[in-house]
Design brief:
0% strand; mainly alpha
């Protein structure tokens, strides 16, 4: 999605902005925890496709929901944004 559309939506909808930033914070904190946990495990290969997933199932469910909501937002916001 265009950055201007996202910035406009974040500025106009504080509830959406709150959920958006919370989802980003959750994703990044999980990613950081995973990275820090791997620092003490030299035998973990991040390029190995058979390696254990970094994200827990609960987070994946939330990310799927966030993706659906973002897609809905994009499909409904294209006609509402001023040029």
């Amino acid at each position: 999605i265009p950055r201007t559309m996202l910035v406009h939506k974040l500025a106009q909808d504080p509830i959406f902005a709150s959920h958006f930033y919370q989802a980003i914070a959750t994703f990044l904190s999980e990613r950081l925890r995973s990275t820090v946990a791997r620092l003490g495990q030299p035998d973990v290969d991040p390029d190995n496709p058979n390696a254990e997933d970094d994200l827990n199932p609960q987070l994946l469910d939330k990310l799927d929901l966030a993706k659906m909501r973002l897609e809905w937002l994009c499909s409904h916001s294209t006609s509402n944004v001023a040029p």
